[in-house]
Design goal:
By secondary structure, the chain is mainly α. The protein has one domain (4-34, 93-245). The chain has 10 helices and 3 strands. It has helices at 27-33, 43-63, 70-77, 81-87, 91-111, 120-137, 139-152, 155-176, 185-204, 215-245; strands at residues 4-8, 11-16, 19-23. The two termini are 24 Å apart.
Length: 246
């Protein structure tokens, strides 16, 4: 599946052979994740924005979304409250931007997997590995997305989380469509739900760095509804070798 990214306003469009998917990351987040450097008078503002998003994720990870305040985020980021208010309407707006940042980075990572050297199953293993490595590297953002946004944050953040989950479930469904048992959106969402639960468990106990080591568990859980236990176990064993290689 070739993925192309483009922005319309504050929305991010994923163009693929299967159609269009809509996310809502800020265009500047997407540019930063792709290594595009900004120039001109807005350079400082972009730098402030990145620091604030990092601070928001860290504060939410440490004290929870509800207990996080604009003042605490501004202090952590090393910026004045006025700088925060110039970039974000309120705490929710900032948290949504931080959530969308990790979503856009995930999409970028998946789009960079070399499709020419991977079979269908191998590609999916690499995709799962890429997601786990990103969650481990961005632990605060991962906790914000997988725990805070889903369980205790605002309705808008839960909606954003579910939109991202639907994109991942659709990718699972497409990959599963080549399997003998076929695929359905319900099956794909259920498979993703099991993976989410495992990720939340590790993040809740501060085990984000352990996520890449659990690649075989994630691969088995995602694939078993589509390919059956025997093939899922075989792919999990292959994933164990991939995990060892890093």
């Amino acid at each position: 599946m070739k993925v192309f990214l483009s922005s319309v306003g504050t929305a991010l469009i994923l163009r693929s052979q299967q159609g269009l998917l809509l996310l809502e990351p800020d265009p500047s987040d997407t540019m930063a994740s792709l290594g595009v450097m900004s120039t001109g008078p807005d350079v400082l503002a972009v730098s402030d924005r990145d620091r604030i998003l990092q601070a928001m994720a860290e504060c939410c990870a440490e004290r929870g979304y509800r207990a996080t305040t604009v003042d605490a985020v501004s202090e952590r980021a090393g910026v004045e409250r006025e700088s925060f208010e110039a970039l974000f309407a309120d705490k929710e707006d900032c948290a949504l931007a931080a959530l969308n940042k990790i979503v856009s980075e995930t999409v970028t990572q998946l789009s960079m997997i070399d499709l020419r050297t991977e079979s269908g199953m191998e590609k999916q293993v690499r995709e799962i590995q890429a997601i786990l490595q990103l969650l481990a590297a961005r632990a605060s953002f991962a906790r914000l997305g997988c725990i805070e946004a889903r369980q205790v944050a605002s309705a808008r953040m839960r909606d954003s989380y579910e939109a991202a989950a639907r994109v991942l479930a659709l990718m699972i469904e497409r990959a599963g469509s080549v399997a003998p048992r076929g695929a359905s959106s319900v099956t794909a969402r259920a498979a993703l739900g099991g993976a989410e639960a495992l990720a939340r468990r590790e993040l809740a106990i501060g085990g984000a760095s352990n996520l890449p080591k659990l690649l075989p568990d994630f691969v088995y859980g995602v694939l078993v509804p589509f390919v059956g236990q025997q093939e899922a176990l075989r792919q999990a064993k292959l994933a164990a070798r991939v995990a060892e290689e890093g």
